[in-house]
Amino acid sequence: MISFSQVRKSYRGGHEALAELSFGIERGEMVFITGRSGAGKSTLLKLIPAIERPTSGTVLVNGQNIGSMRRAAIPYLRRNLGLIFQDQKLLYDRSVFDNVILPLALTGHAHKEAARRARAALDKVGLLARERANPVTLSGGEQQRLCIARAVVNRPSILLADEPTASLDSASADEIMEMFRAFNQVGVTVLIATHDEALLQRLNPRVLALKQGRLER
Amino acid sequence: MSTWLRQHWQTLSLTLRRLARNPLGTLLNVTVIGVALALPLGGYMLLQNLGGAARQFDGNPQISLFLARDANKADIAALETRLKQFRGVRALRFISREQALEDLQQSENLSDVIATLQSNPLPDAIVLETDSSAAELEKLEPQLKALPKVSHVQLDSAWMKRLESLLQLGRTAVLILAALLAAGLVAVTFNTIRLQILTQKDEIEVSKLIGATDAFIRRPFFHLGFIQGALGGLAALAIVYLCMHILNRSILELALLYGSHFRLSFFGFSDCLALLAFSATLGWLGAYMSVSRHLSGIEPR
Asked: What span, in angstroms and rounded, lies between the C-alpha atoms of B231 and B27?
């Protein structure tokens, strides 16, 4: 489903974020990417939706080569991915509901069908009662759940989350992780970048440990 | 197809809601565009009306033929017969030199001067009433001059030609003004859209991240430019219409003094429609330029 081979990513100025990275992720897997900040976790996650392109090597997502993908094809790649960003990227000029419906608006769904699916996604993350609220008024955990709702409303086959529990207390973090587990159980491939070691000990999942842009184990 | 239509409809309603949410800004932009367009539009309306009025006077231009001193009655009769054969000549009127002198004596200012004259300096004359245009009369002039016993031909369309070239000058000036202000309209839209793109920077970035195509992101800005241009055109029409009404009150009084019912008239429906299409297109153009320039700068990182 996702395969990296000999992937190197260096930024202008010579900083090498990823070096000689090779691994594969099967459909329906749940994989954690760990490492200290600056180890290349975010860069790895940005390569999959073509936010960044590899400097050399090959990144394949659903059989599509990210490195050679045409610019015009990128939106269609991203529609099949659910992205949860480290800085959340919620829009505070509109309601919770309007944030969730955004991915459906741009694929041209009829409003009625889009609204039904947006409410279903909000229900899944337990925010249906807050649909009229502004995201600013939500707690940290609720905001993170809103991000998840927006990521899954398009029913993506791959879910990518960058530090989804970073600023949360452990109870909220557990809730979030439970949601990812639930999505994974219905067949969604889940990729989570985290530096929360406690989380890993409890779940004991497959781990890609990065150190200075290389796989540690 | 239905998806395409629905997306446009959704964008349109979104754009209208955005405009309504910021009424003051919208009003200011529309006013700027409206005033800018109203200047050449008002000039164009005045010229159109003047041209129309001039054409009324141009209805049947006259030609005066002044005859040689030695023309006798037989010559005049022969000449009249020849003249009647010319195309476009509707009627002719003979004015003898005695009658011309009498006419002059009637006018108050000249009677004293004429009383001092020893002999009658005036020639006999024939006035032709025609139904030709000024241009056709010009062609006729040399033929008339070549006739026997005709010493001088005077077209009274000369002032018409002067007016016509003045109007032409006015039209050129209006055209230049329109071109300049059209460029201004594009610039205003360019800037509005630039600000709008900056305000929606977050939304654009998020939209790109979740799979919005460039076309989807551009569309609302095109709509915005188009609608703003059209509203500006509407404002320009309203301004010119209002000014016309105010002017007409004074013009009507003035015209009545001259026994005329002249008044300014407004553009026809198709002219109004053409103006709206023009201003909307300019708005779209400004949006297009702005979007091409600024949107590529917003790439998610």
From this structure: 9
Q: Which of B98, B129, B156 is the last residue of a domain?
A: B156
Structurally, how many domains does chain B consist of? 2
Q: Are residues B219 and B264 in the same domain?
A: yes
Chain B residues contacting A via beta carbons under 8 Å:
3-4, 6-7, 10, 202-203, 205-214, 216, 300-301
Q: Which residue range(s) make up the domain with B210?
A: 2-57+161-297
**pLDDT for B40-70, tens place per residue?**
999 999 888 887 776 666 556 678 888 888 8
Q: What is the mean pLDDT of residues A22-51?
A: 91
Report phi then psi at A59, rounded to 5: -115, 120
Residues whose CB is less than 8 angstroms from the CB of residue A35 and which lie 6 or more positions away in sequence, other chains included: A41, A195, A209, A210, A211, A216
Q: B205 contacts in A (CB within 8 Å)?
A: 89
Per-residue b or e along B78-96, where b marks 16 or more CB atoms closer than 10 Å to that residue's CB: ebeeebeebebbeebeebe
Contact residues on chain B for A51, CB-CB shorter than 8 A: 209, 300-301
Question: Regarding predicted confidence, which is higher, B140 or A63?
Answer: A63
pTM of the model: 0.74
Same domain, B196 and B218: yes
Q: What are A164-181's pLDDT values in tens digits?
A: 988 888 888 888 898 999
Same domain, B49 and B180: yes
Q: What integer best gives the mean pLDDT of chain B?
A: 84
> Which residues from chain B sit within 8 angstroms of residue A77, using beta carbons?
211
Q: Do B210 and A85 touch (CB under 8 A)?
A: no
- Residue A25's DSSP bridge partners are A2
Q: What is the pLDDT of residues A54-87, one digit of tens each?
A: 999 999 999 999 999 998 999 999 999 999 998 8
- Among chain A residues, CA nearest to B299: A51
Determine, for residues B211 and A79 on separate chains, whether the beta-carbon distance falls below 8 Å: yes
What does the domain layout of chain A look like in residue ranges?
92-155
Residue of B nearest to A46 (CA): B301
Last residue of a domain, one of B110, B137, B156: B156
Q: Are residues B132 and B233 in the same domain?
A: no
**Nearest Cβ partner of A106 from B205, B216, B300?**
B216
The answer to whether residues B196 and B268 belong to one domain is yes
* Residues linked to residue B155 through DSSP beta bridges, in sequence order: B63
A91–B206: do the CB atoms touch at under 8 Å? yes
The three-state DSSP-derived secondary structure of B106-152 is HCCCCHHHHHCCCCCCCCCEEEEEECCCHHHHHHHHHHHHCCCCEEE
Q: How far is A126 from chain B (nearest CA, A)?
A: 22
